Amino acid sequence: MIRREPGDAALVVDGVRGRFAPVPLRELEVRQRAQAARGVELSIVGPWIDLVKAGRTPPVQASWCRTLTDALRDATAGRADLRFLAALPDLDGGAAAEELARAVDLGAVGGLLASNPQRDGLDADHFVPLWRAAERLRVPLVLHPGYFQPPERLRDHFLGNSVGNPFETTLAVGRLVAADVPGRFPDLRLVLTHAGGFFPYQYGRMEAAFQRWPGNRAVSRRLPSDLLRWFWYDTVLFETAPTRYLLDLVGDDRVLAGSDCPFAMADYRPFEAPATLGLDPQGTARVLGGNALLCFGLAAPAPAAPPAASEGRAAVLPRPAPAEPVLLAPFEGTTLLRPPAGGGIGLHHAPAPGDAPAAPIVPPHRHLDEDELWVIVEGRLRFRFGDRELEAPAGSAVVGPRGVVHSSWNPGPGPCRYLLLSGPSTAALLRALEAAPDPAAIPGLYQRFRTELA
């Protein structure tokens, strides 16, 4: 039942009234006018998570989520300024997986899931089908806490929002890490609202508990410090200092500008005062939209300007990767690049060409979303990036930027071995190609993994 009062409306279930929904939350045009006034050209909208919580049994909640998803599809259909997230039930992970697949067929760019399920936690086994579906469909899941009615201890002073929301997200991360969900589903993309709750600021305490508590030490899992860049984060922090701390901790390529528009607790700073981010123009552009386009697979963000090549024997690549290929000086035992979240690293071998002309290892192509790093271990590897050629000897490294057509080959005379660091799409493409598919299927594989053949 919908209960209306002047200017407001609330959902009532079994006599229990949920929070009132303000007009900007119910009237899409009111919201979009406010977004346009801030220069926001594209918004990703999802269901109000408190409404998702209205379903009290798995069948009712699953049906209710289908209704919400269909309403979001209808509201955003044909609009260039809006994309939508599926409403996902939290009482039945299998039903959530089915709803996500259905919603993606309808045009959803991801799903919205409660970080505080009504029963169990996100480490429960019944969520495994959802993680698998999101990986297979290659769409992110946004984790957002919510209460149809907040617990009694959080009802006063709006503490359900100011304390409860970041706490629930932190607890969700702790359960996900404890169950090694990131290790079991490395290509899963999870976006943490409210800047990750307390996780970016208490990950050390969480890690100490996993390492020191007797019941935790016997369990193999990835550590919280290794997973800071596995997650994605929004910017809803309200103050400059914690926002800059987050950007410094996880990098400006893992943070998406969020606003929580149109709620009273909205945070519009990144749009109204982007200088408060403390980033260069490229980093600001990534946070203000480029990262969201990349995360949700809407388009490739603009590439960053290339850094200067190292003059010493050691070379460290800053984030982000450059917009042009860069040949780095030989190095000795230096970390060149933190492997991308969900990405891969592999040792590859290119045999000597012999008397025949050297052939490209793979046909000329370009990756739409991801950069690559080659580290030459033995021999030489020659590259063509667009119209430019360069040759990398053993002990050097080459950075290849996204969006640039390239190929490589072993010029001889001996064999070549090299390490390739790549993002999740490229790593998945290489695994698929190594499975020796039907040659006729290869162009489709490249397209599936966001790569274009030249």
Can you tell me about this structure?
The protein is α/β, with parallel strands linked by helices and about 450 residues long. The protein has 2 domains: about 1-295, Alpha-Beta Barrel (TIM Barrel), CATH 3.20.20.140; about 325-454, Jelly Rolls, CATH 2.60.120.10. Helices cover about 35% and strands about 20% of the residues. The protein is built from 16 helices and 21 strands. Strands 6-7-8-9-10-11 form a 6-stranded parallel β-sheet. Helix 6 links the parallel strand 7 and strand 8. Helix 4 (about 60-75) packs parallel to helix 5 (about 95-105) and helix 5 (about 95-105) packs parallel to helix 6 (about 130-135). The radius of gyration is 24 Å and the shape is globular.
How many domains is the backbone divided into? 2
Counting helices, strands and paired strands, the structural category is alpha/beta
% residues in beta strands? 15-25%
Count of discrete alpha- or pi-helical segments spanning 4 or more residues:
16
